[in-house]
Predict the 3D structure of the following.
Amino acid sequence: MIKSAITSILAWEAKMALRRHKPKIIGITGSAGKSSTKEAVFSVLASKYPSRKSEKSYNSELGLALAILGLKTVWRNPFGWIQNLVLGFRAVFDRNFAKILILEMGVDKPKDLDRLLKIVRPEMGIVTAIGEIPAHVEFFSGSDEVASEKSKLIKNLPASGFAVLNCDDAVVWDMKQDTRAKVFGFGFGEGADIRATHEKISFDGTTFKMQYTGSSVPIKLENVFGKQHIYAALAAAAAGIIHGMNLIEISQSLNAYKPPPGRMRLIKGIKNSFILDDSYNASPLAAHAALDALKELEAERKIVVFGDMLELGKFTILAHKAIGEKVAKFADYFLTVGPRSKFAAEEAISRGMGKNRVISFPTSREAGNYLKNLIKEKDLILVKGSQAMRMERVVEENMANPESAEYLLARQDKYWKNKE
């Protein structure tokens, strides 16, 4: 009841601020890659324009209002929320209000996007990816209904706006039929307006060539790993082009791009090992992208530590088995966390991975402790799982410099540290 009242007041303040300041608004949705895309878009546009982005993954009704007003969650602190209401009112009259807002718009259940669109109407909509089995599909009849809900962002764009769509994702690219806005496609395929070619992933990061209207520039994303970040950079480049930036400006601004904690960050591990920390959250699409990056990198041994993917409903078994099948093709060890991931473990064994190399644990703490003894020099360990699985604990237990956890890992604030 109290949360609902606070959300309503902050949403009203957010609408008043938007009405008064009239910033350009970019909305980002999809089943994977929203936060990384938001960070990339911010890196590009903030190099030239006063911009504000959603903090962390503020993409719910409350989170969206906080992002618009430039506020942070105070969790269960009642005095903090009273202060936020006051600060929100001040933001309505802030002369330094951002000229561009870059906002994540999340969907967990039907009509979520309707509630967000009552607060904000973006001029530009970016859809990252949906995939065959989307995240948060549990409360929908299937992937088509998830796509339909997310497509509302594109359907509600003005004719003068822009729909920036991943043209390598058939479900996303089909959304171009449902908008009055100008369509701008990004991806690796020849039909993309802005396209990536010659991609390569190494321990230095990810490199590729970015092509647009016959011109191309080399892009190097230092300490950034995986094809999913190329998609984020392409979407950001599209936003930059739409806002009048050239490829050179965009390539230079992408030097500032760093994925948020828990999104494929390379961290030094104990015993001179390396950890690919992708522990923030997990969906089938993101999990396969992380495994693809792990497969491409060279290492003495490759270890996958994988926690349950949640909110997949009837797709749970199928999605986890697909992970196990993929891991069995190249990983040396497979540690799973949670009851759902046992389906992945069983599938890996059925695909020829030795039983002594597949170990299941009920909690991330137990997996982290076991990993300590398993790790050898020059190992490369991928850690991934849904938020509730708390896979960052595996990373913290095995990182070379745990004193840096506060800055490098996901969920390090007091609320999460005190939550079991």
Q: What stands out?
A: The longest strand covers residues 194-202. The chain has a mean pLDDT of 94.
